[in-house]
Design a protein that fits this description.
Layout (H helix, E strand, L loop, with lengths): L2 H11 L4 E5 L2 E4 H17 L7 E5 L4 H12 L3 E4 L6 H11 L3 E4 L4 H8 L7 E4 L9 E2 H7 L14 E7 L7 E6 H14 L7 E4 L6 H7 L8 E4 L5 H11 L3 E4 L1 H9 L13 E4 L6 H11 L3 E5 L9 E2 L13 E2 L4 E5 L12 E6 L6 E2 L3 H7 E2 L2 E10 L5 E6 L4 E3 L2 E3 L1 H8 L5 E11 L3 E10 L7 H11 L8 E4 L13 H4 L3
Parallel strand pairs: 1-11, 3-4, 3-5, 5-6, 6-7, 10-11, 10-12, 12-13, 13-14, 26-27
Antiparallel strand pairs: 1-2, 8-9, 9-19, 14-15, 15-16, 17-18, 18-21, 20-21, 21-22, 23-24, 25-26
Helix pairs in contact: 1-3, 2-3, 2-6, 4-5, 10-11
Length: 500
């Protein structure tokens, strides 16, 4: 099984169908397939072989899809990474993945150069822009001069297809291994769970470096639809695209819906073509759901998933009863249960950890056998999310076992911020947690113990963080304590901090 072959077969069914619209440029299946084959030829000429990792570090654009399929055709592995991460995290992923080819844009040239100084395994950088520096190869020139590579590797369902990095509780990202079989299975589950959308147009605003965006786009393996691909979150562009192309589907995260509620002229655009407004990646506030229906007249369809299981694992019915605040029903082919601390299923209505079983579950964590063994046990994926299932089979999340902060649909490791706080003048100890926020789902709250004789202010701490972190990671709240609550072995008790 090779999902590039499945994608090609689907494209050849209707070669003149407009598959993607990007910046008003319409791209057919035939055109996308030709460029994919050419890029596969380029990568092959650069020495990329089966099992090699290829990093894609760029905002949404058609070249991302071509890079995915081109790598898969050769049996290589895609490593899509967030183009906004800092150079330290980028360098770690470069090294950890062992990739030797990187595809990006000159907008990130400085960051890439700095990260490569710490990761000498990156041998080739290909940039998608027209005007390029000397040290990079031109995507357009290489692909434009290449012949179409028709070869497709005979990969097995269990062969690795994607290495998707997700924030870890240790502060270092973990590489989630997905196979051709797991990506295919998750796409098939979505196809079988949701009503047919053949012939429909959907607006894509989810980043293709994120598992949610990748999973949502993979449904195209089974359906003939058109994607309006956007590379940034701009409500004027989103709403005008819906109106212009009569779009029917949009998938987003809760924060995006909060901003829609803040839009000053909701009646400015004709959104009547829309049928499905989907939400995932983080908890959706009931108030947001109600206000969206009041203002826009549509019901948001809330779902849930995690990178380790393909990102889309449960959903409220597209047609049928939606329980506000619930993550819905398991997708077809997915088993979900609630286990207690002894790994036994609990009765409906009782709380425990949500576990998942199915062919879409990851193969494991890259180079992390201990963490893999902890998360995958007896065929079940332990999600770290705590919840219950009601009498109708709908699942509800009540808490998280993990310390990760989910802000605006993005996982944030508290350790990343704590490392910076410990370098702040006047700070002796620091701990970071997530607290409920109506706009982002969660915001960042820092607890500080000052050095003896020092009196930094909250403003001092925040200003320091602004110099060291992206604005998205800067704590919104700073609280000073005389001492941190700790266990007998000296571990800071975040459970106690959450009570403050």
């Amino acid at each position: 099984m090779n999902i590039a072959r499945i994608s090609e077969e689907k494209s050849l069914e209707k070669p003149d169908w407009v598959r993607t619209i990007y910046e008003d440029r319409k791209i057919t299946n035939r055109e996308m397939l030709a460029e994919t084959r050419k890029l596969a030829s380029v990568l092959k000429g650069l020495g990329v072989v089966e099992g090699d990792r290829v990093i894609i570090q760029t905002p949404n654009c058609p070249e991302v899809f071509c890079a995915f399929s081109a790598a898969w055709r050769l049996g290589a592995v895609i490593v899509p990474i967030n183009y906004m991460i800092g150079e330290e995290e980028a360098a770690y992923i470069y090294r950890d993945s062992g990739a030797k080819v990187l595809i990006s844009s000159k907008a990130f040239r400085t960051k890439i150069q700095a990260a490569r100084k710490q990761a000498n395994n990156i041998e080739v950088v290909i940039l998608i822009d027209d005007d390029l520096p000397q040290e990079a190869l031109s995507y357009r020139q290489l692909a434009g001069a290449a012949a179409e590579e028709t070869f497709i590797a005979d990969t097995a369902p269990d062969d690795m297809a994607a290495l998707i990095y997700t924030a870890g509780t240790t502060g270092k990202p973990k590489g989630v291994i997905h196979t051709h079989g797991s990506l295919y299975s998750n796409a098939l589950m979505q196809h079988q769970t949701f009503p047919s959308t053949d012939g429909m147009t959907y607006v894509s605003i989810l980043p293709l470096c994120h598992s949610y965006g990748i999973a949502s786009s993979n449904v195209g393996l089974f359906r003939t639809s058109t994607m309006v691909l956007l590379n940034s979150f701009d409500l004027n562009v989103i709403f005008s695209s819906i109106e212009k192309y009569r779009a029917s589907i949009l998938a987003a995260v809760p924060t995006m819906y909060v901003y829609m509620l803040m839009y000053p002229e909701p009646e400015k655009f004709d959104l009547s073509s829309m049928k499905y407004w989907i939400c995932g990646s983080a908890p959706l506030a009931v108030e947001t759901w109600n206000k969206f229906k009041e203002i826009y007249g549509f019901e948001i369809i809330e779902g849930w998933g995690l990178t380790e299981a393909g990102a889309n694992n449960s959903c409220n019915p597209w047609e049928g009863e939606k329980k506000i605040g619930s993550i819905g029903l398991p997708m077809k082919g997915t088993e979900m249960k609630i286990f207690d601390h002894a790994d036994k299923e609990v009765p409906r209505g009782e709380s425990g950890e949500i576990v998942i079983r199915g062919p879409q579950v990851m193969k494991g964590y890259w180079n992390k056998p201990d963490e893999t063994a902890l998360s995958l046990r007896d065929g079940w994926l332990y999600t770290g999310d705590v919840g219950y299932v009601d009498s109708d089979g709908y699942f509800w999340i009540t808490d998280r076992k993990k310390d990760l902060i989910i802000k605006g649909g993005e996982n944030i490791s508290p350790r990343t911020i704590e490392e910076v706080l410990y370098t702040c003048p006047g700070v002796s100890e620091a701990a970071v947690i997530g607290v409920k926020d109506d706009k982002y789902g969660e915001e960042i709250k820092a607890f500080i113990v000052a050095e003896t004789g020092k009196k930094p202010t909250a403003e001092d701490v925040i200003n320091f963080c602004k110099k060291k972190l992206t604005s998205f990671l800067v704590p919104k709240y700073v609280v000073f304590l005389e001492a941190m609550p700790k266990s007998l072995v000296g571990k800071i008790l975040k459970t106690e901090l959450r009570k403050m």
